[in-house]
Amino acid sequence: MASRTPEEPGPESDARAARRHRFAAAAREERPDLSLLCLLVAAEADPGLDEAGMDAAQIELDRLAGLLPYHPAGGPGAWARNLAELLGTRCGFGGSPADYRRLESSLLHEVLRRRRGLPILLSIVWMEVARRAGAPVYGVALPGHFVVGFGDPAGAHVLADPFAGGRPLTDEDAALLVAGATGGQLTRPMTAPADPREIVLRVLNNIRAWAEARPEHSAVQLWALDLSLLLPSHPARLRHERAQLLVRRGEFLEGAAELTEYAEVVAAVDPAGAETIRRQAAAARAMLN
Fold it and tell me: Do 41 and 56 contact (CB within 8 A), yes or no?
């Protein structure tokens, strides 16, 4: 069986390389621009999303923020109510189980267009609109269901669920979400503000999971892995996943090389695991015969 030929250089690959360089640089900023990072992710899925398209998405976030009252009386609860009324009720942003089956539900420009998406993408819209309007807003990465918080995470605050149109969440509601997703209990660290890079990694994890369940979309899984590995902090196991994916795609030599490199990383802490990975690399090379 022959190994697949690597992609030939050309305008499209040059544009991808430039976009990924920009993504890596943006992810290393002291204060990463969450909306920009998400739009650069979206551009991997939709090559038609050019600079003008990304600007249009940012302008739409600005426009929505301009529809909110500035520093409303009532503190965090007023911010949450105003966002829910604007985005959930007037604009119709929300989600349903069917949205989990669509790649567009993980792409910021499509979520802004369709006003449908996964909990984390809808939360990003809420956060970016609220931030532009001056709200004390932050993301809350509950296991299995991302939500937003308004106010002081360590003091007076409220939680809201953008997937449900901005429904306010009590502590009991949040605990039920966690129990439904994991069977576990809500702990205080779960409600801490999520770092923008962690949010982007979770978006990419969702895309990887969507593509992994659809082998015909292995190219999507591959670029999601590539972007994940460009983030300053990422699980080392993603390197193993990428190497295995290359082998499944028929890119045996490249996959075997990456397996061998990963085995060297693992060897210091798990010699037996490293030997298993070396055998995987040998098996990949044998598929060329």
Answer: no
Long-range CB contact pairs, 47-50, < 8 A, 24+: 47/12, 47/15, 49/109
Residue pair 167/161 in contact by the 8 Å Cβ criterion: yes
Domain extents in the chain: 11-196, 235-286
Q: How far apart are CA 89 and CA 218, in angstroms?
A: 37
- Kindly state the tokens that stand for 93: 């942003």
- For residue 43, what are the CA distances in angstroms to 40, 194, 195, 203, 221? 5, 23, 22, 14, 14
Q: Exposed (0-12), middle (13-18) or buried (19+): which is 179, by Cβ within 10 Å?
A: middle
Residues 33 and 5: their CA atoms lie apart, in Å, by: 36
E strands in the chain: 137-140, 147-151, 157-161, 167-169
Measure the CA–CA gap between 107 and 195, rounded to whole angstroms: 19
pTM, 2 dp: 0.92
Lowest-confidence segment of 101-110, 178-187, 197-206 by average pLDDT: 178-187
pLDDT single digits (tens) 146-172:
999 999 998 999 999 999 999 999 989
| Residue range 95-132, pLDDT digits in tens | 999 999 999 999 999 999 999 999 999 999 999 999 99
